[in-house]
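Researcher: Let's do a round of design. I'm pasting the structure tokens now; please hold your answer until I've finished.
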């Protein structure tokens, strides 16, 4: 059985995007290689439409990226991607399929049958999965910035007690925390 893992960057006050939808406040220095290693065991990504459209950037020929980003692109391109959207009808990236609805039973079955871990991205989609007790781990990259408003990393009125598994501090002030759900 595979694990369903939420990996995201957040501000110290818990936002994944500012109120304009931007995430240019994220500090990728040092963290990029660390995240690449976190993604290595993931065989499938579950995305909402907006995050998928952002991540589609990684579907270009690997050689077109800076050398330090090429391994991330290889890992991302190789994995299966399932995009949950009521507006998209087709995908623009390899190994990708679009589903209309986020079917919790289908995700349970996918977890049971997958040999590799599954990543989930997008706070709204992740909130549904957490509410259904499907998420096994959260990896948060806390960036040293306060946004005051924006899109929260977790849905309102969603309460869970988590077990801290590990932490890692980067010299840039970013802190990685890994929690077991």
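Researcher: That's everything. Go ahead.
Model: Designed sequence:
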């Amino acid at each position: 059985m595979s694990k369903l893992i939420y990996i995201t960057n957040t501000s110290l006050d818990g936002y994944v995007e500012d109120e304009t939808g931007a995430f240019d406040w994220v500090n990728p220095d040092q963290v990029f290689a660390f995240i690449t290693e976190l993604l290595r065991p993931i065989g499938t990504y579950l995305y909402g439409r907006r995050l998928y459209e952002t991540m589609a950037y990684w579907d270009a020929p690997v050689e077109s990226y800076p050398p330090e980003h090429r391994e991330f692109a290889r890992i991302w391109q190789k994995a299966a991607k399932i995009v949950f959207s009521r507006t998209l009808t087709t995908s623009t990236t390899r190994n990708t399929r679009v589903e209309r609805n986020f079917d919790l039973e289908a995700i349970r079955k996918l977890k049971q049958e997958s040999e590799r871990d599954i990543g989930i991205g997008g706070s709204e989609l992740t909130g549904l999965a957490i509410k259904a007790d499907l998420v096994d781990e959260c990896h948060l990259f806390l960036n040293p910035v306060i946004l005051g408003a924006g899109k929260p990393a977790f849905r309102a009125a969603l309460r869970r007690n988590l077990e801290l598994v590990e932490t890692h501090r980067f010299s840039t002030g970013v802190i990685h925390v890994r929690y077991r759900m």
